[in-house]
Design brief:
Layout lengths: L15 E6 L3 E3 L3 E8 L8 E7 L5 E2 L3 E4 L5 E8 L3 E9 L4 E9 L2
Parallel strand pairs: 2-9
Antiparallel strand pairs: 1-3, 3-7, 4-6, 4-8, 5-7, 8-9
Amino acid sequence: QVDAAIDSPGDGLADIATFTAVATTIRVGEATQATVTLTRGASSAGQNLILDPENLAILDAPNALVFAAGETTKTFDVLGKQPAPLTSLTASSGTNSKTLTFTVLAP
């Protein structure tokens, strides 16, 4: 006996397919837009993604993104707060994660 529902595409958490930003070099006080796209629509219960800046003193972003049922893409702002040659922002879905690296320049 096979329980096909366990692996059906509509159940469970979707993976992050892509995590991109309009710009990965920004100035202090400037924001850029970042976009997370899931491999498929969020389940009927929805899905939360955690956003984790490497250093909160350098980058500001939402703590989490909430995907409604069927939603695949979210766009949000990333703000430069302090100069840094390299700092990262990681998005985690519960099944995988993707990381962007940013450079924040002085104003």
